[in-house]
Amino acid sequence: MSYHQPYPPAGVQLNHTAVYASDRSLSAEFIAAILGLEVGAPFGPFLPVDLGNGVTLDYYEKRDEPIQAQHYAFLVPDEQFDAVIARLEAVGVTYYADPRHTEPGRVNDLFGGRGAYFDDPDGHNMEVMTRPYVRP
Ligand SMILES: [Fe+2]
Description:
The chain is of the alpha/beta class.
């Protein structure tokens, strides 16, 4: 997958962030498989997953310390949402309608779209949504 944009880009854009993992391959392969993406070639200590919008998740292994769970939200096209849910079901990962994981097996309808939350292998709280949050 390639992504081209004018350089320098207008304004500030998130370009990449490190995602801590106890096993970078496991975690990168997991999110890539669920979202229908590819894991890139290792870049030093990082294992990248390009999201297709110019942002890269750089999976970084942290073996000796506990991993603080973070939250990552992915906007997906409407027509891909069902496939994401189907992949979660296929690998036996429970999804929830709410961020606190009290409504298993359900999706939400926030902002007129659909959304769901699920844990990655290290407990990062992942979210897929078809509409961005409408903020005041
Ligand atoms: Fe969120």
